[in-house]
Write a structure and sequence with these properties.
The chain is α/β, with parallel strands linked by helices and about 525 residues long. It has helices spanning about 35-50, 70-80, 90-95, 110-125, 140-155, 180-190, 205-215, 250-275, 280-295, 300-305, 430-435, 445-455, 460-480, 500-505; strands at about 25-30, 55-60, 100-105, 130-135, 165-170, 195-200, 230-240, 310-315, 315-320, 320-325, 340-345, 360-365, 370-375, 395-405, 405-415, 425-430, 490. The chain binds 6-O-phosphono-beta-D-glucopyranose (BG6). The site of 6-O-phosphono-beta-D-glucopyranose (BG6) has 3 residues, from loops. 6-O-phosphono-beta-D-glucopyranose binds near residues 240 and 259.
């Protein structure tokens, strides 16, 4: 395996100079799925790496009756099952001492008084100077109550001047349409200043997503080509193998457009399409990303018909095993019209991207898990090697593989060795795994550390959340109106409905085979 060369020194902003501050992290929904699968394992891995602040505690807040010891077992179980690195007995012993549990229900003011008391005890025991982070890992319907009670109890108050901080992390989805997102944001704004609020989108914590900016602005060769003169189209795919599992309650309300496109995909799209920021200051980067969202061509009702495809998986196969269709999943209505597949043709109406289609697709129950961005460049002129229009040369495609098999590849044409001139497509390929060896940190590790350090670069600002909902909501409305009329099905384990192939064929392109 080739050794990774010495890296350049860390760069301030996007941000290696960040220092996590001593703090306690309260997880609202502490006995829930996200805490178990992602948050507690992420904290444990940060502890393994020795990067958690020395004075740190995590307090799970949940409705269930549980002792600290029982919550530690819950955390241990989560870590044993879901941590990217196995549980190490010595490290665990140290880590578990910082894990606490508090019972309470979010709508009961007594919960917050008890929490205040508990936090004071924990802070005294762990030497924490009153810095607090509240992670709202709760259903959106409870956001409002949680936020308002935090304010009413005084727990979320952060003095303007220097002093202990209070920060709040809000899980996606923030709302289910523009209006509800605005309401949640307004509720947040009544209780917190915007700089206290961290709206999380875990895609932004993925190494490969952060690498988009480095690739674009840390290299000389891509940026000159990164525009409508040279780019034919872009494909952005988030393909998932799994069905909805046990999340019917959430997914029936959400669907693929709200679950993935409104947040993960539009965030990645913003990074791919944004103008170069003049600095890596969080506000500058976020301003430039916001510009992309503002330039998305609005979808009028008639565009939704021609520029979007929604579909739902029917029964099929997953790794050879028969799996049910969406409507047969537990908790799903037998006549549900929730989409599990979305394909969109999107335009960004600015100077750089005028006329370049961005094709987006995401779905559950596809044959393979793969997230990637593929930038397809325009054909070389139809002379010389590309003179034969019946057998055109393969276009150059730059593929950013976000997961799994993280890396990037560039497809180019070469001459096949031999006496005749025969062209052959090859790939220049970079793989994180073989270059850097180590497994990348989980997105939540990076993002939790950023909140502890007060670095909001990788979090979504209020205006960006609302801009993305402003673009998405008309699509939802148009679908709502036509839901009963038209909802193609695709077999679980297939690549989606034929309508999606027709959508991309409008540009003479085809979806990439992943
Ligand atoms: C979550 C969605 O935000 O992202 C899930 O709610 C989806 O439905 C998940 O499966 C995908 O995340 P990842 O990191 O596995 O690509």
């Amino acid at each position: 395996m080739p050794e990774a060369p010495e890296p350049n020194p860390p760069i301030a902003g996007l941000r290696d100079t960040r220092t996590p501050q001593p703090c306690s992290l309260v997880i609202f929904g502490g006995s829930g799925d996200l805490a178990k699968r992602k948050l507690l394992p992420a904290l444990y891995n940060l502890a393994l790496d020795g990067v958690l602040p020395a004075n740190f505690a995590v307090v799970g807040l949940g409705r269930r009756e549980m002792s600290d010891a029982a919550y530690r077992s819950f955390a241990r179980e989560g870590i044993e099952r879901f941590s990217r690195r196995p549980l190490d007995a010595t490290h665990w012993q140290n880590f578990e001492r910082s894990v606490y549990y508090q019972r309470g229900s979010l709508d009961d003011p007594a919960t917050y008084q008890a929490l205040e008391k508990r936090l004071q005890e924990v802070e005294a025991a762990c030497g924490i100077p009153g810095n607090r982070i509240f992670y709202l890992s709760i259903p959106p319907s409870l956001f409002r109550t949680g936020i308002e009670q935090l304010r009413a109890s005084g727990l979320g108050v952060q003095p303007e001047a220097a002093g202990p901080f209070a920060r709040v992390i809000v899980e996606k989805p923030v709302g289910h349409d523009l209006e509800s997102a605005q309401e949640i944001n307004a509720t947040l704004a009544r209780s917190f200043r915007e700089e206290q609020v961290y709206r999380i989108d875990h895609y932004l914590g993925k190494e490969t997503v952060q690498n988009i900016l480095v690739l674009r602005f840390g290299n000389a060769i891509f940026e000159p080509l990164w525009n409508q003169k040279y780019v034919d189209h872009v494909q952005l795919t988030v393909a998932e193998e799994e069905g909805i599992g046990t999340r019917a309650l959430y997914y029936e309300e959400a669907g693929a457009l709200r679950d993935i496109v409104q947040n993960h995909i539009l965030q990645v799209l913003s990074l791919v399409a944004m103008e170069p920021p003049w600095s890596l200051d969080p506000e500058v980067v976020r301003d430039n990303k916001l510009e992309v969202l503002k330039c998305l061509r609005p979808m009028r009702e008639e565009d939704v018909e021609t520029h979007s495809v929604r579909a739902q998986y029917g029964a099929g196969f997953h790794h050879g095993d028969a799996v049910p269709g969406y409507r047969q999943e537990e908790g799903v209505e037998s006549d549900s019209t929730t989409e599990t597949y979305v394909a969109l043709k999107v335009f960004i109406d600015n100077w750089r991207w005028a006329g370049v289609p961005f094709y987006i697709r995401t779905a559950k129950r596809l044959p393979k898990r793969a997230t990637e961005v593929a930038v397809q460049f325009k054909d070389v002129p139809h002379v010389l090697f590309n003179a034969d229009r019946a057998a055109p040369l393969e276009p150059n495609v730059l593929v950013l593989r976000i997961q799994p098999d993280e890396g990037l590849s560039l497809g180019i044409c070469t001459k096949r060795p031999g006496p005749r001139v025969q062209l052959y497509p090859v790939k220049m390929d970079f793989r994180y795994g073989s270059t850097f060896g180590d497994q990348s940190a989980e997105a939540y590790e990076r993002l939790l550390l950023d909140v502890m350090a007060g670095d909001a670069t990788l979090f979504i600002r209020r205006d960006a959340v609302e801009a993305s909902w402003a673009w998405i909501t008309p699509v939802l409305d148009a679908w709502q109106a036509s839901a009963q009329r038209w909802l193609p099905q695709y077999d679980a384990g297939s690549w989606g409905p034929v309508e999606a192939d027709r959508l991309i064929a409008t540009s003479g392109a085809t979806w990439r085979t992943l």
